[in-house]
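FAQ

Q: What does a record look like?
A: Structure on top, sequence underneath. For example:
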């Protein structure tokens, strides 16, 4: 049985696409199974091949965000990564909103890209740190005026809120699983959903955001 991480690459710059393909194919656990250049090809490849991951350029023909939205709806099992030069916060938020698991800038090194893609395949969302920090600051500022923006925690289920509260106390996934009589894999799945809903890149930022909102609500 082939346990390789199967990847599709879609970018309208062939040289860059081939470079990424070479970087991933050089690793023993990756296999690039398809390549395309626009949104239509991205959706077709996702449907036909059902890869583990599909990497999309934001500015390719037909729009990478549009492709991500269509793929998330048609093939929810496929993890979507945006690999782009765009540092526009609106692009980052739009990508995460439609279902992208990662947002990576093209300046990243080969070894770092491999590490990031492995992490996303393992269930961890990722946004380039400089963009994540900027977004977190923007979200924090927006939450000061609750009337201008909804509480992001309102999107969480009761179980997700319960898990986030335990994360804020410093408990690990394993400890939370034991507390709630669930499997560690289930907790990891919940954490992936929590991070996506709060649009933060790790459990620390999720807990901090929750604490900040609680503090704001406590003074209102």
């Amino acid at each position: 049985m082939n346990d390789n991480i199967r990847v599709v690459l879609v970018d309208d710059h062939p040289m860059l696409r081939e470079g990424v393909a070479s970087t991933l194919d050089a690793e023993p656990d990756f296999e690039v199974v398809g390549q395309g250049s626009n949104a239509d090809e991205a959706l077709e490849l996702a449907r036909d091949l059902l890869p583990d991951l599909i990497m999309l350029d934001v500015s390719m023909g037909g729009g990478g965000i549009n492709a991500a939205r269509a793929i998330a709806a048609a093939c929810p099992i496929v993890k979507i990564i945006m690999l782009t030069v765009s540092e526009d916060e609106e692009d980052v938020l739009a990508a995460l909103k439609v279902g992208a698991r990662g947002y990576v800038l093209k300046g990243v090194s080969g070894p770092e890209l491999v590490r990031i893609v492995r992490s996303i395949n393992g269930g961890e969302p990722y946004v380039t740190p400089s963009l994540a920090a900027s977004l977190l600051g923007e979200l924090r500022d927006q939450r000061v005026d609750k009337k201008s923006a909804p509480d992001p925690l309102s999107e969480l289920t009761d179980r997700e809120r319960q898990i986030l509260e335990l994360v804020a106390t410093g408990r690990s996934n394993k400890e939370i699983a034991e507390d709630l009589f669930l499997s560690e894999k289930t907790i990891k799945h919940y954490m992936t959903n929590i991070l996506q809903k709060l649009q933060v890149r790790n459990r620390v930022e999720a807990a901090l955001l929750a604490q900040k909102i609680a503090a704001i609500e406590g003074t209102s």
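Q: Is there anything notable about this one?
A: The first helix runs from residue 14 to 25.
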